[in-house]
Amino acid sequence: xxxxxxxxxxxxxxxxxxxxxxxxxxxxxxGAANQELYAQLYYAKDDRYMAFTYTPEIAPCQDVLKxxxxxxxxxxIDMYPKDKGLSYxxxxxxxxxxxxxxxxALLSPEPISSCTKQLNLLKNQ
Length: 125
Known about the structure:
Layout lengths: L2 H15 L5 E8 L5 E8 L4 E7 L5 H8 L1 E4 L3 H4 L4 H5 L4 E7 L2 E7 L7 H8 L2
Antiparallel strand pairs: 1-2, 1-6, 2-3, 4-5, 5-6
């Protein structure tokens, strides 16, 4: 998916997710033994798009890939202090699901009370 398509998709998903979410992230497994992820991220607060490759061992993404889905309602940075991306977007909450070839995630700068709506939204993309 090219940058413009991703940004359009991300804005639509963030609009459906609710006002507390300001960051959408998709990653595809790549590299030897699928140990790397190619990611696209849209951060609405700065209207910023980023694409990068990373290894997930310091990020909640590793747990999404292992568990299938992950909901962290608050203090996500405390749980993954080495993930500088979480700090950059000032994430307090994280919701992610595993896909056939990677993952999708929503991040919020505020604690959240429930994950059900957003998990269903991510699953239906």
